[in-house]
Amino acid sequence: MFDTVPGLMDQIRARFAHVDSCPFTGERVFFENAGGALTLNSVVETSAKFAAIPDNQGRANGAAAALMDVIAKARGDMATFFNAPGGQFIVGESGTELLFRLIGAACLGTGAGRVLGSTLEHPASRSAANRYAPLSGKAHVLVAHDDATGSVDAAAYVPDLTPDTQVATILHTSPVTGMGVDIAAIAAEIRKVAPEAYIIVDGIQHAAHGRIDLSACDIDGYVISPYKAFSRHGYGLAWLSDRLAALPHDGLMNAPGAPWELGTRDTGAYATFSDVVAYFDWLGGNFTDSDERRTRIEAAGRAIHAHEARLTEAMLHGTGNLPGLAQIEGISVLGGIDNPRREGLVSFALAGVPAVDIVEKLNAAGIRTHTRKADHYSGNILDPLGLDGCVRVSLCHYNTEEEVARFLAAMRDIAAG
């Protein structure tokens, strides 16, 4: 889709730092976006600006008032980006930390019953549920994901749903298989049986690919790690429904409004997410004439999805005279070849060649990918497949078909031995 706008890909790539070279190793293709996406140049500039400001929020001076205005603007930008139905946004140490806080509060603030999750989930949400379910007198029940599709659907949740389901966790997109999940459909099934359950979603892997619409999902919490969505390390971002926010939670005694944020948060974190929203707004403006900011953000999400689908199609089926992964003998692709759930990520194994060796050879060819091992991060996905590791190639919309071709040429040579 990007090729319908002349020069757009060059404009996109110009907005990101280190788009084609590493400051430590030199020129490279960056296919490790699921580990942390590229950072917007505007985020780099904003981070430096706010790192230099000595003033605190909430003081009786002009600088403090300006900082509070920045935070208020950012919260408004977040509401538009997520299409949030009320509730509130908070920042914390990381996405993982915020998942622990939201899931912990939901577990401890409800009575005996069940915490329902799935085997697809990242250990951030599974570990939080595993810790707080027994502390709150609940069973932690896991719905089995589908090994063949690398995902889990609403129908799989139904047999394990009971009226005493107090808390439910859902993964929006798997960082191992790259497959998306229909969180609205799952939430609807949960509400039919346990309408008062607190539903918390891990959106960390999904966020960079756009198309977040909380108004279309009857959930209570949504968490992302902004460094995986073109911002920077050092903070996580969460949306909480009003009823989740009202539960007892960690906080300072007698603090007005019972805030969820602990201590003074970094104004720069808020400001850099405004940069992310502004980028989506700009990008979407190339595909719609609408004056509505949310409409432009939605247009950006559709364009991102279409471009990434084209890149993964080329990676799987080939481009030019280069064979795709599906045509290379001995390669197996997690979640199958043609899977409509895929979001900018292909994980694969090559028979007889350890994943760590493939990643090392790709590094030598100037292509950055990552090994997923059957460990505490990915064993839930890889163990049932009989794999001790796989190669994860994760794309974002600033990647190009030429970069895919370079990857496929390297894989052709690696597979040939």
Automatic annotation (TrEMBL):
Protein name: Selenocysteine lyase/cysteine desulfurase
Keyword presence, Membrane: no
Keyword Cytoplasm: no
Domain of life, per lineage: Bacteria
One Pfam family cited in the UniProt record for this chain: Aminotran_5
Sorted UniProt keywords: Lyase, Pyridoxal phosphate
GO MF, any single term: lyase activity
Segments forming domain Aminotransferase class V: 29-244, 303-407
SUPFAM superfamilies registered for this protein in UniProt: PLP-dependent transferases (SSF53383)
InterPro entries named among the record's database cross-references: Aminotrans_V_dom (IPR000192), PyrdxlP-dep_Trfase (IPR015424), PyrdxlP-dep_Trfase_major (IPR015421), PyrdxlP-dep_Trfase_small (IPR015422)
